Each structure stands twice: as structure tokens, then as C-alpha cells.
Amino acid sequence: MAETPNNRQLAPEALKLFAQGAASIPTPPLTESAPASPTSTFDDRVLFAVPKKGRLHEKCVEMLRGSGLEFSKPNRLDICMVKNMPITLVFLPAADIPRFVGESNVDMGITGQDVILESKMQELTTESLALGFGRCKLQVQVPMSSGIERIEDLAGKKIATSFDSVAREHFGKIDARLGTTTVVEYLSGSVETACALGLAEGIVDLVESGETMRAAGLKPIETIMSSEAVLISSSMSKKPHMLSVVE
């Protein structure tokens, strides 16, 4: 998605409410004699999960700093204390954040709607805010030369994807209707190469600009979902008194 002045400003604006709310929670004092340790205690701080790398990481860090959070991540730790608010940032793989939040290991986090669906954490997490970046589509794609135009034409064949849970559920409904059996193969990456290498007749993969898809000679035949980065909180939070102020 091309960046415009409007969506460059959207991320800081989206968390303005969060920053204002968090600022109203007393920040535990840091003393020279007892400097804060990132792993000491989290009882009086909101644990906030942030993607540690990948397509969402830089935007998240930019947004958090733009919303007024002051922090410096230690080189060898994936945890850091926000200096001016009672928040501890925890840097995790984006795909793991829904589970950490859903199981109340952390209180809040930022991740994509696609990985929330893939991890089946919809019931255990609450989407508090759509953040306006990381927009993409999870699509079923086939080779341009395949002659396949409809999802029904792909049913009963082999599919490669990193989103095997979503793909199995999606094609399971089609198989039940058509009496077919679609095979879903999990790949951890480079999914767009699966058809060219003969591993699968189609794939399910994320599409942002579409450049990678077209370069691989693929075309979309169905969109399973649209996704963007969202702020989520635990539906079973251990600190509802703090989250209610933050949100």
C-alpha cells in the first residue's frame, strides 16, 4: 500500500487515546539505589506485546514512540520498561502474540487480524483498536497458466500455505459441499514458490501490493479475509482495573 501523509499520521493518532489513558496510571518510581529490572515484577505494570520483527515491527515501534512512550530496548533482551508510563514492552513473534494475550501471559498487544484467526484466539482476545497499517489480504492463488478461475475448480487438489488452520477450515466447507478432499500442506515460508516447484496446485498466502504474487506467475481467485494491525487485549485479563484506564 502506498504511503500517504494521511496514513503516516494515522498510527500516532490511533494510540493517542491509549497514551492519554496510560498516563493517568501512577508510574512506579525508579530509584538510583534500586534500578528497575525488566524481569523483576510486572504486577503494577501493563505487559504490552509488540512484534519483534517482520512487516509490523517498525510501524509498531514508530507508533509507540509517536504516542509518547519513552523506552530503550536492551540489545540482548526482548523486554523493556517504558520510562514515563507503567508499561513493560515484550517483543514477541507476531504469530505468538494472540496466544500470549489470549492466555493472559501479557495484557495487551499489537498483531495482525490474520494471525488472530490462524491461532484461533478470537474468543479469548478483544480487538480494542484498528491501527490503520499492515493492511493485506489472505487470498487463494493459482498459477496464471493453470486455467483455474473458481475456488471450486481447486477443491480436491493440493494447497500449500503458512495459514494451514484457516485454509483447512475454508476448504473444509467447500469439500463438504462438493464431496471433495483438498490436501493442505504447511510451509513456513516462500509459499509463492510451491506451485512452480510442483508441490501444490494452489496456495493460500498474504498479499499486500501483489508484486510478489505476480512475479511468481500467480493470480488470486478468492479472498478469504482482509487484515490489518490491531490493538488487542485479553478477554480474561488479570489486571482489568489497569486495562480499563488504558483503553
Would you kindly provide a brief summary of this structure?
This protein has nine helices and eleven strands. It has 247 residues and is α/β, with parallel strands linked by helices.
Itemize the secondary structure elements and their pairings.
Elements: H1 5-14, H2 16-23, E1 46-51, H3 57-66, E2 79-81, E3 87-92, H4 97-102, E4 108-112, H5 113-118, E5 125-130, E6 136-143, H6 151-154, E7 158-161, H7 164-178, E8 183-186, E9 202-207, H8 211-215, E10 218-227, E11 229-234, H9 240-246
Parallel strand pairs: 1-3, 1-4, 7-8, 7-9
Antiparallel strand pairs: 2-3, 4-11, 5-11, 6-9, 6-10
- Low-confidence sequence ranges: 1-11, 22-26, 28-39
> Could you tell me the number of beta strands?
11
Helix and strand run: HHEHEEHEHEEHEHEEHEEH
Q: Report the end-to-end length measured between terminal Cα atoms.
A: 28 Å
Structural class: alpha/beta
- How are strands sequenced across the largest beta sheet? 2-3-1-4-11-5
- Text of the CATH class of the largest domain: Alpha Beta
How many discrete domains?
Answer: 2
CATH architecture of the largest domain: 3-Layer(aba) Sandwich
What's the CATH superfamily of the largest domain, by name? Periplasmic binding protein-like II
Radius of gyration, in angstroms, nearest whole number: 21 Å
- Mean pLDDT score: 85
Number of helices: 9
Beta percentage is 25-35%
Overall 3D shape: elongated
The helix content is: 25-40%
Major sheet size, sense and barrel closure: 6 strands, mixed
Per CATH, what is the topology of the largest domain?
D-Maltodextrin-Binding Protein, domain 2
